[in-house]
Each structure stands twice: as C-alpha cells, then as structure tokens.
Amino acid sequence: MRYIKRIFLFMVIALIILIAVFILNGKKMYEDVIAEHSMSETIKEIRNDPNYVKLKDLPPAYPNAIIAVEDHRFKEHGAIDAIAIGRALWRNITNFSLLEGGSTITQQVAKNIFFITEKNAGVRKIAEIFAAYDLEKNYSKDEILELYINTIYFGDGYYGIKEACNGYLDIEPEDMTLYDCTMMAGIPNAPSVYAPTAHPELTKSRQEKVISDMVKYNYLSQEEANKLLGIK
Questions:
Q1: Quick check: 182 and 71 in contact, CB under 8 A?
Q2: 164 lies in the same domain as 224
Q3: Which of 49, 60, 50 is CA-nearest to residue 174?
Q4: What is the pLDDT of residues 125-150, one digit of tens each?
Q5: Chain centroid to CA 166: how far?
Q6: Domain extent for 118
Q7: Does residue 62 lie within any of the structural domains?
C-alpha cells in the first residue's frame, strides 16, 4: 500500500511540474509577442484597416448570432469560461474524442491577433489565456466582440466580416438580412466545412444550429426562426 501511495504522489508531483512548465512557457510566449508589438499597437493597426467594420454599423442580429452560437455567456464571464471548459473536457473525455472546445470569444480574439501562426497548441492555449486577461482588462466587451468580427477567418481567403460579405454575398455588412446574419455567423466555426462555396448543405445545417441557439438564448422568437427555416 505504501508503495502505491508513493507512486501516486510521484505522479501528482510530476503532473504539477508539467502544468507549471506549460504555464511558464505560455506566459513567456505571450511576453515575447508583446515585447515585439504591444497590444495597443496591434489593435490600433487592426482598426486602421480600411476593411474594419464598427459594431454599431452592423445589423444587431449579426453580433447576437455570433454570441449565441460561439459563446452565449460572453457578457457574463471574464477572459475564460470555467463552465464551458469543464463541459468541453467532460464531453471530450467521455467520448474519447475532441468534440468540443471551451474557448471564449476573447480567447479567440487573442489567438487571431497574436498566435494565428503558432503551431505549439498546448503552450499557445496558455498564452491565449494571458492575452485574453489583458484584453478583458483594457477593452470593453463590445470592443472585443468588434475585434472578433473583424479578425475571424471565413474561408476562401476572407478575413473579417466585410471581406466575407463582399465575397460570399456581394453586399456590405450593414446590408445583411436576418437570414444573411444567421448564415455568416455559422461559418467561422469551421470555414473549410461551412463556407458556402465548399459545402452548401453543411452551410445550411450550421445555419440551422445558429438559429436554434438564437431561439434558445432569447435572441429570436420561435416564430421568427420558423420563418427563416421555411417552417409554416
């Protein structure tokens, strides 16, 4: 019994050391990135892009759709969502597969603006958390959501909602209908799968998920959803 306890204690200590190393490496990754280009400078450059779209210039249904399908507790939690992380871990462990992620919109912004080319996924995730905390400390929820909408990838070489609307719909973002908003909100989850030029049937399936979540989180009535889905 004593031998088993020693082995268990050794495993716990090894795990703690491993986690500590990941955290320190993630912190260093973030500090190295910030040392080259500060957060404020990076965000200023993004906002100065001619394709940058202000949140106030978008149909309200679009950011609502994004929040509903990507991070429905976005306005309530901080940089990370412990509930979402726990739920994702449980689902992935019980299914022996990577079925769900727990990243918040803020973490996704951190990845998009600082770590999009970083290949070390484990350390990058930790670096994203450090960046996400700084984003939440220095920028409002609306500012973070606006950055997300302008930096997320939509497939076919389109970054940000303006390029995606121009390319897929041949319209400006402010001209999106409710139908357009629900479709565009679904694409970034997996652009190579949900882009309308790749798999239109999967685009439609993902759009239905967006609409369902908007009803679930009170952004749409069931009557509005049925109309969008063509249900009488």
A1: no
A2: yes
A3: 60
A4: 899 999 999 999 999 999 999 999 99
A5: 22
A6: 1-50+74-152
A7: no
